[in-house]
Amino acid sequence: MPTPNAATGLPRKVLIIGGGFAGLELARGLANDNRFEVTLIDRTNHHLFQPLLYQVATASLAAPDIARSIRQILENARNVTVLMDEVTSIEPDEKRATGLSGTVYTYDYLLLAAGARTSYFGNDAWAAHTMGLKSLADAQNIRRTVLSNLERAELTTDEAERTRLMTVAIIGGGPTGVELAGAFADLIHRSLKSNFRRIDTTKLRVILIEGSNHILEIYDNDQSIYARQHLESIGVEVRTQTKVTNVRAGALEFLDGSTLEASAIIWAAGVAANPLTQCIGVPTDRGGRITPNPDLSIPGRPEIFVAGDLVSMRDREDKPVPGVAPAATQMGAHLAKLLKEELRLEAKGFTGNKHDLRPKFRYFDKGMMAIIGKNHAVVKAGKMRLRGLMAWLAWLFVHILFLVGFRNKLAVLLGWAYSYLRNNPEARVIVYPPTSSRP
What we know:
Layout: E1 12-17, H1 21-29, E2 36-42, E3 46-48, H2 53-57, E4 67-69, H3 70-73, E5 80-84, E6 87-91, E7 96-99, E8 104-106, E9 109-112, E10 116-118, H4 136-155, H5 159-165, E11 167-171, H6 175-191, E12 205-209, H7 221-233, E13 236-239, E14 244-248, E15 251-254, E16 259-261, E17 264-267, E18 271-273, E19 297-298, E20 301-306, H8 325-347, E21 368-371, E22 377-381, E23 384-387, H9 389-402, H10 406-422
Parallel strand pairs: 1-2, 1-9, 2-5, 9-20, 11-12, 11-17, 12-13
Antiparallel strand pairs: 3-4, 6-7, 7-8, 10-18, 14-15, 15-16, 19-20, 21-22, 22-23
């Protein structure tokens, strides 16, 4: 148990909401520091490496390869308590939060890093007919749906039904949509082509739909063109300047009046912040994100910090800080140093406004990368631009580096090696939830 510190007589209570990259990094940074009593709350029991979530959805990796128990990660942090609960409300004036369990959590410092959710831009009814990709459950649902549809297509003798079952529509031409499309194309044309007898899996349509002029708009124009050309070369239908006006069961409707029937519709077009940001009482942007002070604290609430996907801020070059793993990790590390320094000043008897001395968060941009199927990727980092095999190898190295735990690194590396050499990923078993009926 934490021991009292000289300044307050009691350890400071640090409440972390969210076990993602920011929350985990803060907990690690304060581990075994007896001046802090840390409670980390997450609605799941695992830390998820979201950048590889699409590979679970496309049967390239198994779920345990990209997730690890938060308790296991922090098992040696004696001053950190991990609880599986979902915080439903925050009362800043009382310095407390309430969980779905009914438990009330008090704090001296609060980090809100609860992550993002799928956004349908005000068309929430579309959620019933589409699949998002924000959790392991989402990824397993996508994989289960696509593989089950192939099984049903093998069974049916109705050609129209077979065509519908063999159509995958992906809405959103950002990195998630592009990576999904490329991975599905590889799965279909390389891995499954000899697995079925009645259907030709190469006829499964993967359609990537983007409302703007280009896919991967945040990348350079030549990288966007390269990505499109490669996707089309491996069989993906890329439709840009195509706006979805309605989503219903098994079908999409577009602004030009046309309709597309698809048995698997994946929504990768937008994200919104966790609604907990509305509890703080400060303005948010359209996506529900908060613009914090330079030190990541909430305006008017120096004891509350925000990090990860919930942040809307700009870096030293006046560019938006992206909602990616490196940025969230850097935010968590920054806050650990900030809190330690604040208590050090208190212990030395500093009587001024310690909040004025807080260091500003400085984001070190490590670049962006997106994989576009086997042997192909794009990388944009500073002045460096890569595409093709070199970009793909850089993507592999960086993602292995950021995985938490040796077991996960080894499992993913071996899984990739096997899939690369054999074109035959093993994570293709279909498991239906106990409460669901088979499609």
